[in-house]
């Protein structure tokens, strides 16, 4: 079944991105799904095409590489794709003491979480203004509201996403372009393991987060925070002195980081 509705989603192979892609597919959107793992993206495309009879285009792109976002935009535009909705979901983290973390990973994080998101938002929103409307969902984090020792660059990058999204939402509303920003807390996905830390207990499922995000986006909500606990956490972060918040977050992230290293060591000893 063909559709006139279209969405491009970055980081769509797993986690929140995959669950959001599924929701759009169920609503018969034409999808462009973007990520680094082409095999996984192809599997997702085949699944959605069979289950939901929608059009799915796969683009393998590592948006942590310089100029990758510009290349992606031109590639998709050249195909005649119409940007009704953009979901900037792709993001990475790296846990550990800042002076010890890998510089290249820090740069890749900034390139992906900030630079590529900004580029895609700018280029796509300009098209949407010309078209007369559209929606963009930028994925930040509850960490955007607080300093994050042991996760310093990641938290800072998400603070940028939140502030940036709120600002341009104000600018673009008169042009019919809706900007929403999703601020999830700990979410069960591959993110924690890739970032080098253990998963937080009682983390929300990616499916639950995606359902809240989808509903919020469709209702033109500016800031979407899934779950009462996350809403309360954000409120406390606003009320407490930032030094106190940093101490609390630092203890939590340090333990997650150290537990991850212990698990790796134990697995090596058992092998």
Automatic annotation (TrEMBL):
One of its GO terms (cellular component) is membrane. Keywords: Oxidoreductase. InterPro entries: NAD(P)-bd_dom_sf (IPR036291), SDR_fam (IPR002347). GO terms for molecular function: oxidoreductase activity. It comes from the Bacteria. It holds the Pfam family adh_short. PANTHER family: DEHYDROGENASE/REDUCTASE SDR FAMILY MEMBER 7B (PTHR44196), SHORT-CHAIN DEHYDROGENASE-RELATED (PTHR44196:SF2). Belongs to the short-chain dehydrogenases/reductases (SDR) family. This is Short-chain dehydrogenase/reductase sdr.
